[in-house]
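Lab notebook, bench 4. The sequencing result for the construct came back, and we need a structural model before the next group meeting so we can plan mutations. Quick request posted to the team channel:

Model the 3D structure of this chain.
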Amino acid sequence: SRPYGGSQVHWFDHASGSVLIAGHSNTVPAIVSALCQCPVPDMDDAVYDRLYEVEVGAGQPPRLRALQMP
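Done. Here's the predicted structure in token form:
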């Protein structure tokens, strides 16, 4: 596991492909923050249009894209 910001993300041996992680406004920022190793702002309970994409490549630092859906 990798701790970050009070959260822990358990890394599994996943050689390639995509992984979808879903959560609620009170869990998503901490999960995303742990995955990207970067600060992610808190979300209000009324936020339903946020999508985070974290790209984790071998030997590369994680990249975060924050999207707002229409």
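The helical segments are 28-36.
Will bring this to the meeting.
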